[in-house]
Amino acid sequence: MRPYELFIGLRYTRAKRRNHFISFISGISILGITLGVTALIVVLSVMNGFQKEVRARILGITPHLQISSFEGPLADWQPILKVVSHNPGVSGAAPYVSGEAMLSLDNNVEGVTVRGIAPEAEDRLTGLSGKMKKGSLFNLRPGEFGIVLGSDLARALGARVGDKVLLITPQGQITPAGMLPRLKQFTVVGIFEIGMYPYDNVLALINLNDAQKLYHLDTAVSGISAHLRDLDQTQEVTAELEKSLPRDLSVNDWTKQNANYFRAVQMEKRVMFIILSLIVAVAAFNIVSTLVMVVTDKQADIAILRTQGASPLSIMKIFMVQGVVIGLAGTLLGVACGVLLSLNVETIVPFIEHTFHMQFFPKDVYYISEVPSDLHESDVITVAYFSFLISLLATLYPSWRASKTQPAEALKYE
Fold it and tell me: Across the chain, which distance is largest between two alpha carbons, in Å?
């Protein structure tokens, strides 16, 4: 036997009401909750997709970990490389040299970040050879002074593969005429494209040995770069390396290097959740309106139930059932629609763009021209729980008012 409160509450929900306006408001409430839940799930999934895509592009060229010295270049770096490489959480490590310089070609001058790398080791870590548009990363041979430029940097300089560019470093040479900058001619042997402005526009790659000669480091390097097997274990691996390495070394991971960006993304995600939650809140107000009108319409029924021994709590439960059914129906429909749309965003958006001859993210403006989606189960559960909770809270006041109905007053004019 079902509890009579549930039986009557479901009967009120299914019954044809004399006041069709109440049915209309109930439908609007379900539709509002459905739209709110759908919008929340889709927007959160798209934001997750953008975050994942941008993170993949950032980490496609930058190391997951960087080990450097507080005191300057690392002279005895081979033992440090061995310690880092033997850490179970590290998939590979390689030395690098980093410095600032200016590149000049004809009348064009651009400031750049120069990174000296060992091409084979770097490619094993980042797969950079797969991001080459022209030329080859492996053309960076020691002693030949070749250089690989980002696509935007090459475009700004007007440089092509085979061109000679002049690299000017701030570390000058003392002459009788005063301090003169150090100049060295490099040959463009390749052009890469990551799809991120900070790298395509300012990064120039040269061979590690050439960088050591250019910056007068002898056999020293700027630091050790490392890639991790699992990005979720970044903090644990960083803590382990900090314990095993000398105290004068700094271990800087990708979460610290891009901390401001990832904080901004998380803040945007929270703000969007709050804003879109207002849609669900408005639908919840409709539930309040619906139940208030139902309570008014059922005054006589409430009075009869009270005279037959129903307690105020039982009356309250009866009308809560109706509100919960509306909230549950809207939440389940919203979750179904949201999951379906999120899993097919990458198909639906191109269809809309093709149908209306438009583009949401033009390639000449945005580096990410497609709308990505990354559906997280935790987001779906959070949105569903929040929606159902709001719907449940919306039933409390009207149900409480129904429980306070006095039978004598309600039946006075019947």
Answer: 113
Note whether 114 and 145 are within 8 A (CB). no
- Is 265:52 a contact under the CB 8 Å cutoff? no
pLDDT digits (tens, 9 = 90+) for 224-236: 998 888 877 888 8
DSSP code string of 132-144: EEEE-GGG--TTS
pTM of the full predicted structure? 0.70
With a CB cutoff of 8 Å and minimum separation 6, the contacts of 155 are: none
Give the number of other Cβ atoms within 10 Å of residue 305's Cβ: 20
CA angle, corner 371, sides to 369 and 262, nearest 5?
95
| pLDDT reading at 413 higher than 60 | no
CA 121 to chain centre: 29
Averaged over 286-302, what is the pLDDT?
Answer: 76
Q: Report which residue type is found at 414.
A: E
Q: Tell which residue, 227, 380, 214, 394, has the closest CA to residue 294.
A: 394
Which residue type does 38 have?
Answer: T
Residue 43 token pair: 């927007």
In this structure, are residues 169 and 181 in contact, taking their beta carbons and an 8 Å threshold? yes
Neighbours of 141 (CB within 10 A): 13
For 207, 245, 319, the CA distances from 138, given in Å and listed in that order, are 9, 32, 73
Q: What is the b/e burial string over 357-391, where b = at least 16 CB atoms within 10 angstroms of the residue's CB?
A: eebeeeeeeeeeebbbbbbeeebbeebbebbbebb
List, in order, residues 6 or more apart from 278 with CB less than 8 Å away: none
Whether 339 contacts 375, CB under 8 Å: yes
Buried/exposed code over 251-283 (b: 16+ C-beta within 10 A; e: otherwise): bebbeebbeeebeebeeebeebbeebbebbeeb
Q: Say which residue the tokens 């490590």 belong to.
A: 93
Residue 34 contacts residue 334 (beta carbons within 8 Å): yes
Given a contact cutoff of 8 angstroms between Cβ atoms, the answer to whether 388 and 327 are in contact is yes
What pLDDT is recorded for position 20?
62
From its phi and psi, is residue 261 left (phi > 0), alpha (psi between -120 and 50) or beta? alpha
